[in-house]
Amino acid sequence: MTPVKTLLTAMLYMTDGTFMDGHSYPGFSPVEYGTRRECLERVEFLKQVQPPEGVKHIVFGCRYAPMDWDLHLSR
What we know:
The protein is mainly β. The protein has one helix and five strands; from the N terminus they run βββαββ. Strands 1, 2, 3, 4 and 5 form a five-stranded antiparallel beta sheet that branches.
């Protein structure tokens, strides 16, 4: 049986109405974590980082690959 991986995701909603994926967020990396807890700890860290100028809202997620989003955490 293949171990379950947890994938960190992010979506940035901009003040001009556009959106981008999390690759442009400082400190973000779409890495796989061994546990959901490790992923959530990284989300808590990222929520403390000053977002780039023009970002209105950010949605972080920790999901089990390849399943859909397990959790949404907003900043």
